[in-house]
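Batch job 17 of 40 flagged for manual review because the log was empty.
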Amino acid sequence: MSLAAELKTVRCPNWIMNSITQEPTPYVEVNRVLLDLFNRVSDVLGENFIGMYLYGSLAVDGFEPSRSDIDFVVITDDHLTDPIIQSLESMHVELACTDDQWVKKLEGAYVPVGLIRRHDSDHPPVPTLNEGKFYLAPLGSDWIFQRHTLRESECAISGPPLRDFIDPVSLKDLKAAIYEVIDEWWEPMLANPSRLRDPGYQPYAVLSMCRLLYTVTSGELASKSKAANWTLKILPTEWSSLIKHALEWVDGDDIESIDRTTEFMQFIIELCRRS
């Protein structure tokens, strides 16, 4: 029996109506958007749909309505055909045109069940929604973190538990992912920090650094705010104001010096590499 077939056997015949989690999060508006997305996705995918799950801040109790994304993954029975991908894109464009601020927080991917067991950097690109754009892209090294969260948190909108279908992610795996994410994403930003001119991206970078250090030190994943509060206790006080500013930042606030932010990034990256 194929993995996709095995997953489908654990669902009841009327699973689309009977296995939806009506209140998957403590947030009414988030639930409204997620259930609307679920209805649209299940209509487009039909029998290709296996399940829809949460990862990121909603799965680790770190969601902050003013700044967090709504991270989701849809598991499909196989790689999707071009017509289905085009229908998904049209659906997301239609959603974006509602001008709903909560819809703009949606970020996720449509992942074939064959890719979910373990990370494989050599695979065809999958439909991805990121920063309001729908496109095809391979799953990056950060999906080692996402797989771990999906396995351990089991935050399902609909679908069978994924624990038996995702291999455990070891501390070695997490550390390897951290170093790869640093190499692929953060180190190049030190050389070209233009993205840090975006006011919202500076606090994101600072908090992401805190989370990288927390994970490489503890072997656990945590929300950005939890990791940042932890770093406030262990790092030299010279970084305290930068971290607190990132924790407290809201849209419209002033930004820190780009040089100061990159100094902090370099400091944390060096600590991670020594761990």
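Reviewer: the log was empty due to a logging misconfiguration, but the result itself is present. Residues 9-18 have pLDDT under 50 and may be disordered. Unflagging and moving on to job 18.
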